[in-house]
Automatic annotation (TrEMBL):
The keyword Signal appears for this protein: yes
Gene3D superfamilies, per the entry: LysM domain, Periplasmic binding protein-like II
Alphabetical UniProt keywords: Signal
Source organism of the structure: Aliiroseovarius salicola
Signal sequence interval, chain numbering: 1-26
Name of the protein in its database record: Transporter substrate-binding domain-containing protein
LysM domain sequence ranges: 31-79
Superkingdom of the organism of origin: Bacteria
Amino acid sequence: MFELNLKKLAMSAVAFTVLNAGAAAAQEACTNHTVSDGDTLATIAIAAYGTSNYQPIFNANRNIINNPNSLEPGLVLALPCEDGSLPNGRSAQEIISAEEARAASVKRSSVYNPPIKLVTGNGWAPFADESLNGGGAITRLATASLQRGGNDREYSVSFVDDWNSHLETLLPLGAFDISMAWNMPDCTNRTYEWSWETKVRCTEFDTSVPVYDIVVGFYTLPESEYANATTFDELKGATICRMEGWFIHDMEERGLRNGETITLMQPVTARECLDAVLTGTADFATFEVQLFADTMVEMGLNQNDIVENPFVNTMSSLRFIAHRSNPFGRQYLAMTNRGLNEMRESGEWYAIVSDTLREHNEKLMAATN
C-alpha cells in the first residue's frame, strides 16, 4: 500500500492517498460521509485527505452533487479510498481488467474500417499527458469508448500542444477526426454577446456527451476584498487571470466580460496566474481545481497562501469535438457516446479516472520530494 507521512500529506494538494491505519484522516477516507450544516467539499477533503482539492470527491459523487458550493445537510457522500476505489467497492484495476477481458471476448467484425484519428494536447495532467498511462484520463476514456458499447474501431492518438490549431486548422482540414478535452459553452444560451471563441465552438463543431465534469474555482489572497464575495456581480471591477487558450465563456455567461466589467490577464501558465495573485497584479486566478492543487504543490505554497472563494465557482464539462465538415464526425461522436454510456454503467469510467489520478499523484509527489 502506498503510504505517506504527516509532513508529506500536509504538503500534498492532490493527495489521493491517506495515512496508515489509526490516523484520524484514515478514519474518514474510504467511508461514507453524511454532510452536516456548514460542510463544504473543501472542508471534507481537508479532514479526509489533508488537502483542499475536492475534485476526487466530486468525481465519486457527481450524480448527486449539483453545486459544489451548496451541499444539503444529510447528503451521503462516498469518500474514495487511497487507491481511488469507492468504499466497499472493487478496485479500479479490478474493474478495468474485467471490462477489458469482457470486450476482448466479444466477436469482432471482419469488415475493415480506417482508424479514427484522435488528437489532444500534451502536458495537461491528469487529463492529457503522454507521460501517463494511456495518455491521461481523457485519452484513456476516448480510446476505451471506441471498444465499448458495441464499438469495434481502431484508432490513432496524436499530441499537438497548440490547442488553437485544433480548432483553426487540424479538424477543419481533416488532419484529425476528433479532438479530446474541450470545454464547450451552452450554445442554447443567447442572453449574452458571444465572443469569437464561443461563436466558433457553437457554430463549427459537434460535441460528444459530457466526458468529465470539472469545477472551476476562483482563487485569491485570504485578505483580499474579494475573498468572501458571494455573487459574480461582486467580482466586477476585478482583474482576473486565466491562461491563454482557455475558455472564458463561463465568465461571459455571468456578466464578467473583458474590457467591460473585468480586466482579463491571459499568460501561458497557471503558475504565472498564481504569481500574479501573490504580487497583487491580479485579484483572482481562475481555472479548474485539480490544476490549482497541482500548481500550489509545484510552487511550494500551502493552502492558506492563496484560497478558493467559497461562494463562486463554475462547472464545465470536457467533451470530444468533431468539425462539422467531417462527413463521419457525428458518427464517430455517436460511437464514443455509446461507449461512454456503457462505461459509466459498468463503473469503468470512474475506475479509469481514479486510476489516472492515483498515478498522477504518485508522480507529482515523487517530483516534489
